[in-house]
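Recall the central idea of this unit: under ordinary conditions, the amino acid sequence of a chain determines the structure it adopts. In this exercise we apply that idea directly, starting from the sequence alone.
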Amino acid sequence: MKPRLLDLFCGAGGAAVGYHRAGFDVVGVDTNPQPNYPFEFHRGDAIATLEAFATYQTVAYPLGHFQAIHASPPCQDYSRAMRHLSGDYPRLIDPVRDLMEAAGLPWVIENVPGAPIPTQSTLDGRHGVELCGSMFGLRVYRHRLFETSFPLAAPRSCDHTVLAMNPHNQAGRDRIYEEFGRQDPDPIWNAEMGVPWMTRYEGREAIPPAYTEYIGTQLLAHIAVPA
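Accordingly, the structure predicted from this sequence is:
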């Protein structure tokens, strides 16, 4: 039987597919409907779900028993690239971290560069890493930070000699047009990220499943070690 992972702020399932490939049975929770989420999904509040876990209460839907938790809190107010949007979104990393520690399960938090997440293990016992698509042979950079309750390291350094696709800047869009012709670049970029089932807007919020497949493999090894 596969271990179960709770995927909070799940979006359309980029992180979920990676954990599934690593060997988890994944269940998603999000405040918004997610019709393209590829696994079991419950619409609900992630913070309320964590509070229920932390205080050993039942939640309003049958989540069952889990062995790990992943959370991707809203990133807009942390993003260096989206400073024009800051101030309108909650900063949830600190309360999410506190609640996941109280819940007592192995956990992962994902967010953008600029978020208060370490990029390596620290002297005070925190663990984190920054991942880039080039580490996994993808033609996207998509830098993301991951803080974990267990030690974690990047597979290798970024390779920015790889010319990245990106429909959201001119150079990256031109690379797509040069190779694929002048068509809608977002589906091509989604496919390169590994999220071809997503819409244009879902893909813009997603992370490549390669990231969480890599983390999930290490998370499984951590779970397998007796406490």
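The first helix runs from residue 14 to 22.
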